[in-house]
Amino acid sequence: xxxxxxxxxANLITDAREGRxxxxxxPEDFVYIDRDCERFKLAIRAMQHEAQAISEIxxxxxxxxxxxxxxxxxxxxxxxxxxxxxxxxxxxHAILEDHFRIVEDIQxxxxxxxxxxxxxxxxxxxxxxxxLARLPEQLTPIDPAQSKPGVGQPEVLAPEGP
Length: 162
Description:
Residues 141-162 are annotated as: Disordered. This is PE family protein. It comes from Nocardia bhagyanarayanae. By secondary structure, the chain is mostly helical. It is elongated, with a radius of gyration of 22 Å. The termini are far apart. The chain has a domain at 26-133. Helix content is 57%, strand content 0%. The protein is built from five helices and no strands.
């Protein structure tokens, strides 16, 4: 997906911004979707960093003889891995960039809808602000090593003050 292409849900974001689209959810859901989108974007950037690092590994460091001119298959293999890391339109880095932009659009869509509710409903706005005040200041990173399919891990909230 290039910068000039229309983003997948751009029309929904425009509709939400202009008040033609609504989505009824609890304030908590809006806050948690926004928080989780941020966490997911951080995880995507970390994976992109690793993909770029793979693309920059020197041929001699692979340990399969890619720096030896006689071993052309080793050179080919290393070149393919490096290009797949970052260096082609369908590299891991490029595909993750598409995913990042989609998550960003989902986040923007929910922010626009949430803001319309906040502007129109003081009780809703108060509930959103109360939840935001209780969230930890630093995002808890997504750690794939600790995740278990089908088992949720709720975010720890700071205790409510007096």
